[in-house]
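Lecture notes, structural biology module. Today: joint structure prediction for complexes of two components.
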Amino acid sequence: MRHDIQSTRRSFLGASLAAAGGIGAAGCASTAAAPQRRSSLLTPNCKVLFQGDSITDAGRDRNHADQPNAQAALGDGYAWFAAAGLLTAAPTTGLRVWNRGVSGNKVFQLAERWQADCLALVPDVLSILIGVNDLWHAKNGEYQGTVAIYERDYDALLARTRQALPSVQIVVCEPFVLRCGAVKDTWFPEFDHYRAAARRVADRHGARWVPFQAMFDAALAYAPPAHWAGDGVHPSAAGAALMAQTWRDVVEGRATVR
Amino acid sequence: MRHDIQSTRRSFLGASLAAAGGIGAAGCASTAAAPQRRSSLLTPNCKVLFQGDSITDAGRDRNHADQPNAQAALGDGYAWFAAAGLLTAAPTTGLRVWNRGVSGNKVFQLAERWQADCLALVPDVLSILIGVNDLWHAKNGEYQGTVAIYERDYDALLARTRQALPSVQIVVCEPFVLRCGAVKDTWFPEFDHYRAAARRVADRHGARWVPFQAMFDAALAYAPPAHWAGDGVHPSAAGAALMAQTWRDVVEGRATVR
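The predicted structure, tokenised, for the full assembly:
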């Protein structure tokens, strides 16, 4: 039995992602750049690094942090589900995946550990999901951050990354929440401003955008918010599985983003 | 923001699935047909039906069995994870997905309820995962089945389906086990004969093959058997998430099978 890519026709998924993108457009601050076809960011022997907060961390074992491709090192969240799909479909391509997400992190805390937990790993593809704590911890009084500080710090982090790793492919994942659990109406519209800031940062630094909020907004037609994230912030297995599919569609170039 | 398909190049995923297929070849009875490029089986407004045993059932709520696209009706397994990915990527295409898997079923029990639970729904795409109970229940004395009976009954079921629904697209999922929990060495090589029989049935009836055993065999490089299925038969969330990605790759035509 042999598998090979079907790359000669416009697929149902293509049309469907257009629809999903349309939904996404309602909630993001995308600049109106011309649409572009994109290729996969993944190449043989490439190194992929997932960075972020608890959503990315997902219980990973720090004792295995340096070991690529091992479930214990990758946790139980979207990063692991996406890695497992990639690695299982591509067992012989030399792909190496790491996860260095840390629970509770805000964007300035990524910067504090960036040399050891990003630059030293010299990733070819760097995927970042950060932002919900920048608002959450400000709302609960643990942090004095603002949208402007988030955008400034995120811009500085990506500029520093691009300077140290000129050829790195950067993936910026849209911060998201489900309206349940810890997520209160008082988070809005401010949370939407953090999402818009993340999109501006992604566009300024030529990063590929993964529309997680748009995805979850569309998913609410099929299951309630708590099904996807019980506390509104941390995805369930179903939420993580859905994130992994969307992440792969974007990163593997099955979707392009305007 | 707008998404669109990237369909102009051979992708990393294509090469990677070739590798996965190579692994699959070691364990299946694929006929040596010439490789074919395949299109997506999914078209706008199509009806997809998942059929099988407890792996497909995955705790679905019978009270919602007639309701397409609802999580409660689709359970918490690979069928739901695949449906959620499809529906969220394609919220406007009119796709409708049902699940009528029933825990404990063997292939002859699918036949007993086939008129109501398959033919009456007139699916455009029918996905079947059946076989582990045909062996398991024979091993534990609950059933007198054999590989020959499984293959005979499966052939008859698909012939009946094709006669009633001449245009249905059939997807046959490879029965699989992980070597842990309830799965004993005494299941082998007999279980491999059930997998081979399922592949022969798929080829005889022009069905698309989803190589779940090959997928899990490849996944063992990254996590132990119990991570994917605690009892060796029923997938964990990670196992179900991986199955959903592979099912979509095959059914959406990103992979072709020799």
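Point to remember: Chain B touches chain A through 79 residues (CB under 8 Å).
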